[in-house]
Automatic annotation (TrEMBL):
The lineage of its organism: Bacteria, Pseudomonadati, Bacteroidota, Bacteroidia, Bacteroidales. It comes from the Bacteria. It comes from Candidatus Parabacteroides intestinigallinarum. One of its GO terms (cellular component) is cytoplasm. This is RNA-binding transcriptional accessory protein. Residues 637-706 form the S1 motif domain. PROSITE patterns: S1.
Length: 708
């Protein structure tokens, strides 16, 4: 079976079967996607994380389908109806739709109209009608009027019900209707009477119709959400007439009385059984496709957010701004530990500007604050203005930080464990400060769904969403690498090969024995076996270790190679890392072995150039237009600075310094055709936008990036 799976996956993903087979072998041995893509390039032929992830997903799907086939075969066999031909067709098929069609006639059913008719003894009559060669139909029908069958019409109706079920279970008939849906299906939505006011946000869909194949994923998900909320009635229908005509050409032979009965049964089969069944199929397929697209966009947004530039280990003042309840301040040391917290009230209704300014200046001086992080929620602009107007005893950088998910974190079990004696406002301000220092380390504590960079995330398949987002977080954490002596349990959980138990064991070991002095010491952590060490060690950093390679992405299994390189050059490993000229003298082909090829050797040299280098970009200070503080200040034609906060497949949302984010539609992203917004913009990108229109009633701002 494995060989068939390798062939099917290779064909589907356009990857040579040998590469697929070797990659699956690594996955089955317990290797993680980040480990395989980084440290097993020779085995996979250089496949990247996306390709390896796709292989894993396909393998999982085929494994599930194999289980389904085994269950179907067992069910049909129990009925004594499994012919060698049927068995072969099911065993040879890897198309789930085809398999379900083959199973349909044998699928245990609830009581149907056809089943009731069979119990009345009307199946022989249905067979007579289907032959369509009976010369004296009334007499034949009359012979079935007995027992529970009261009259000829009841006999004919029962026979037609059986025929309708046969047609519905006919593979060819189902494919005919499927083809019709694929070519001509239209998705339609109408507002539920009396729900017009309540569902005003779905106004565009109150009387909507569009070919299904042209419906975008965001529109489809909006329709399905409107349907789930009871605002819209949604249906999918093909061009029925030609479809029914095709079915009649297939099943109706001649023009006699029996043929008329079969024709009526075809109409009934289409309307009552085939159309609803295939409509459900297409609704599910289109929803799955829309989910896939929405999850892809969400995962890409999440990746960009997690890999946002970090300020690094600096002393930070975090501010959760507010009006009536004041601004909550927290002072954090360079490791993100909470040193001090209090509230100030610079805004209405208390307006204690002077007192608040003196307090902020004092805290900056007392705690040696190097940067200030302000949450971008309520009172953010006013707080930013207030903070930048204060005179400090040193240079202090001021940043506005996304608050998305901070309230989720501050009320979470994680936050309660971390700060049991503080309330949610203090925890929220700490999260804002830490996000500036290291967005990745802080955001891993929050359910990715709550970070606020997706669209319709509560409407898509939750299992598929979680799987994709978890993979994205894991990929980002391992790309950056983790300082094993400062990382939280939550960050360590995402490191390749660790998981929650080992992450907690590392934290416990650290608390008991102090900082790790080397990667080798990780083997002393309870339950850290050879496999877990192999999978995780390359992603765990130990700054200050005696062996400089412990603070790099060079895997411990490759240390002997680097040591041999240093020995050949007559220097130490530390000297080899420090001296670029020494590295230039290396002939890396000399170090090729049966297991280690050029890809690994090139990675090693690249890492020796900048060991432990953070792949994230440097952080930049950003300022909004000081004259724009609310939607009332926004005018058509203005050119404004902004920050991209969310990307969808119909454009992106930009924060221009007011409560409402403006929309740059996909058609306004560039002076060229754009099919995928992620090719033009990224999360947290600093952009300049032109205001196209302002709708004060609906609180909407339309923006453009064309010609700027």
């Amino acid at each position: 079976m494995a060989t068939i799976f390798h062939t099917l996956i290779a064909r589907s993903l356009q990857i040579p079967a040998g590469q697929v087979e070797r990659t699956v072998g690594l996955l089955n041995e317990g290797a993680t996607i980040p480990f395989i893509s980084r440290y097993r390039k020779e085995v996979t032929g250089g496949l990247d994380e996306i390709q390896i992830g796709a292989i894993k997903n396909q393998w999982d799907k085929l494994t599930e389908l194999e289980k389904r086939k085994a269950s179907i075969l067992a069910t049909i066999e129990e009925q004594g109806k499994l012919s060698p031909e049927l068995r072969k067709r099911i065993e040879d098929s890897w198309d789930s739709t085809e398999i379900e069609d083959l199973y349909l006639p044998y699928k245990p059913k609830r009581v149907t109209r056809a089943e009731i008719a069979r119990k009345k003894g009307l199946e022989p009559l249905a067979k007579i009608l289907m032959l369509q060669n009976e010369t004296n139909l009334p007499a034949r029908v009359k012979s079935f009027v007995k027992g529970e069958v009261k009259n000829t019409e009841e006999a004919l109706q029962g026979a037609r019900d059986i025929i309708a079920e046969w047609i519905n279970e006919n593979e060819s008939a189902r494919n005919t209707v499927r083809r019709s849906f694929a070519r001509t299906a239209v998705i339609t939505s109408k507002v539920v009477k009396g729900k017009e006011e309540e569902g005003n946000k779905y106004k565009d869909y109150f009387d909507f119709s569009e070919p299904l194949r042209r419906t975008t994923s965001h529109r489809l998900l909006a329709l399905r959400r409107g349907e789930a909320e009871g605002i819209l009635r949604v249906s999918i229908s093909p061009d029925s007439e030609p479809c029914v005509e095709q079915l009649k050409r297939r099943f109706v032979k001649g023009q006699g009385e029996a043929s008329e009965e079969v024709s009526t049964a075809v109409d009934d089969a289409f309307k009552r059984l085939l159309k609803p069944s295939i409509e459900t199929e297409f609704a599910n397929q289109s929803k799955a496709k829309a989910d896939e697209e929405a999850i892809r966009v969400f995962a890409e947004n999440l990746r960009q957010l997690l890999l946002a530039p970090p300020l690094g280990q600096k002393r930070v003042l975090g501010i959760d701004p507010g009006y009536r309840t004041g601004c909550k301040l927290v002072c954090l040391d360079a490791q993100g530990n909470l040193l001090h917290n209090e509230a100030i009230f610079p805004h209405p209704p208390r307006n204690e500007k002077g007192k608040a300014a003196a307090k902020v200046a004092q805290l900056v001086a007392t705690y040696g604050i190097e940067a200030i992080a302000i949450g971008n929620g309520t009172a953010s602009r006013e707080t930013e203005q207030f903070i930048t107007d204060i005179r400090y005893d040193r240079k202090v950088q001021v940043f506005v930080v996304s608050e998305n998910g901070a309230s989720i974190y501050s009320a979470s079990k994680i936050a309660r464990e971390e700060f049991p004696e503080y309330d949610v406002t203090v925890r929220g301000a700490v999260s804002i400060g830490r996000r500036l220092m290291d967005p990745l380390a802080e955001l891993v504590k929050i359910d990715p769904k709550s970070i606020g960079v997706g669209q319709y995330q509560h409407d898509v398949d939750q299992t598929a969403l979680k799987k994709s987002l978890d993979q994205t977080v894991e990929s980002c954490v391992n790309l950056v690498g983790v300082n094993v002596n400062t990382a939280s349990k939550h960050l360590l959980t995402y490191v390749s090969g660790l998981g929650p138990t080992l992450a907690q064991n590392i934290v416990n070991y650290r608390a008991e024995h102090g900082s790790f002095a080397s990667r080798k010491e990780l083997m002393k952590v309870p339950r850290m076996g050879e496999k877990a060490f192999e999978q995780s060690a390359g992603f765990l950093r130990i700054p200050g270790s005696e062996n400089p390679l412990d603070n790099s992405a060079v895997h411990p299994e490759s240390y002997p190679i680097v040591e041999r390189m240093a020995k050949d050059l007559g220097c130490s490993v530390a000297e080899l890392i420090a001296d670029k000229e020494l590295k230039k003298r290396l002939d890396i082909e000399r170090y090729i072995t049966e297991k280690v090829g050029l890809p690994t050797l090139r990675d090693i040299l690249q890492e020796l150039d900048k060991p432990g280098r953070d792949p994230r970009q440097a952080i930049q200070v950003f300022a909004f237009d000081p004259n724009v503080k609310s939607i009332e200040d926004v005018r058509a034609g203005q050119i404004l600075p902004g920050i991209v906060t969310n990307i969808t497949n119909f454009g992106c949302f930009v924060d221009i310094g007011i409560k409402e984010n403006g929309l740059v539609h996909i058609s306004e992203l560039a002076d060229r055709f754009v099919s995928d917004p992620t090719q033009v913009v990224s999360i947290h990108q600093h952009v300049r936008v032109k205001v196209l229109s302002v709708d004060l009633a609906r609180k909407r701002v339309q923006l453009s990036m064309k010609g700027i």
